[in-house]
Amino acid sequence: MLGALERDRHFMRRALQLAESAWQRGEVPVGAVLVSGDRVLAEAHNEVETRRDPTAHAELLAIQQALRIRQEKWLSDCTLYVTLEPCPMCAGAILLARVGRLVFAAWDPRMGAAGSLYDIPGDRRLPHRPRVLSGLEAEASEALLRRFFRELRASGPPPLDR
Fold first, then answer.
1. 151: annotated active-site residue
2. Which of 27, 43, 47, 59 is catalytic?
């Protein structure tokens, strides 16, 4: 039986593997794993480019998968592991699905909504507040994101549609 921190690291490492998989597909490398106890309910990575859908974030896709599997609308007993701090849309989905706990790796000062730019999960005016653990495996996530964007910039601008 794994201790709480070891369990968190285990699932965050899986989220990092999913982020790496996203990168291989030309997506921003963000991965998410949604867990109930020690059981993985859903996992996803960003699919914004693949689906041509700006809402196809890893967190949202994992939440939607878990809700379909469970045939319920609440995920109160679940933990969502994600490699990057959720944006406002994803933070809202986490609250609406009543995810019990959020664990994220890297902070996102540009779009983060779990403590950086906004703190939606911590807003006491809202009816649900998940417990939040931040910074777990942050260095690995940040390194992956830096490599992805460095390579993206090195490849030059995308061709113009004609």
1. no
2. 59
